[in-house]
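Could you help me review a protein record that somebody else here produced? What it holds is a sequence and that sequence's fold in token form. I need someone to confirm that the token line plausibly describes how this chain folds. Take the sequence as given and treat only the tokens as open to question. This is what I was given:
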Amino acid sequence: MSQKNATTVSSQEIYQGAYVVDPAFTKNYGKRFLVFTKGKGVWLWDLVGKKYLDLASGIAVNSFGHGRNDFARIVAKQMATLAHTSNLFTSPSTIEFARRLVGSSPLAKDNPYKLHHPAGYFAGVHLGNSGTEANESALKYARIYASRKPKPNGTKFLAFKNSFHGRTMGALSVSYTAKYRTPSEPLIPGVEFIPFNDLDALTKTLDSSFCAVIVEPIQGEGGLTPMSVDFAQALNTLTRRHEVVLIADEIQSGMGRTGTLFASQALGLEPDIITLAKPLAGGLPASATLVRAHINDLIHAGDHGSTFGGNPVAAALACHIWDHVTKEGFLDKVEALSQQFRSGLEALRVEFSFLGQLRGKGMLLGIEISENGLTNKDLAGLLEVLKKHGVIALRSGSNVLRMAPPLCISQAEVKQAFDKLRAAFREFDKLK
């Protein structure tokens, strides 16, 4: 095939109103995409000018909304100064971001390992670009720690049914859903899955043959099931007893999304590693793997790295966002918005018989639609009806409508959201 013909074949996209069909992407994303051209606050506009209320936040990324001039100024200033250094060097914004992350964690009141590190609860942070990379880093550090400590542990990982930790081979190996796993098998061996929140299964399974447990405080892709407080305490106790690394995947639940800086706080979960990503840098690629001192002390130069991790531009914006999230009163506002959202969802449950149990916490909320016999296909249809009414939402698992709106949404915009949801549900109720 000539170069001319190859170029022609790879550029066959067709525009159908606000949608594009067959763009030059790999086929794993499907064929048809709604095209957004701009956003402002909690609103998005598509290719033909239709306006949508964004209750998805780019999968819980845009916690502070769209089209922010303060974000643009920070990014432009840093781009004009220094855009990239690699991980062989560093920059002031990267140093400052790392300091914020390790220096202000509000976790455990006491230190179960009796460590007194000047940085605080965490001793170091690996900066990366995405959630799956953060989890890959956590898995690597756990294996390194288990092999180098005075009494080594085994190499196995314990994960949970309905979990999701990413799409790269390591993160995928500790993710449960078959449709994600099967096409890429064989995956990394030595992973066991047990039911989430099952104290008996945890007690019977966990021992020193494992190097780490990886867990989501709220299962983002698994139906928004939250961890119980009792299960969190059991994880604390048993991982310490067996000297197993406890990894909290807070890719979706961290950075204020659930009403506390980390969802682990409210549960009393005391992880050795926390992974963060999605909202960390306001839509720019950024992730963080926060590591306790007893693990960090056994990591050697060259054990891990990232060419783009800790990028100065992303770090400069991330510092600004961290200051917003940790500002006095911000998390109280998130909690108040959460109560308003939950009240609205409860009212809709009463009105529409196809709506079931509420799920999630804070501003990571969901509602079942299968309680009265609806299917996975019905949920996909509901998402399309919501788009028709100018609402962007998500799914979680096979039967939960997920909402993760920007944390900057106003009370008036919450009311608009429920007016739109009610109208969409009425139409869907007639169609089903």
About this structure: The mean pLDDT is 92. The longest strand covers residues 210-215. The radius of gyration is 22 Å.
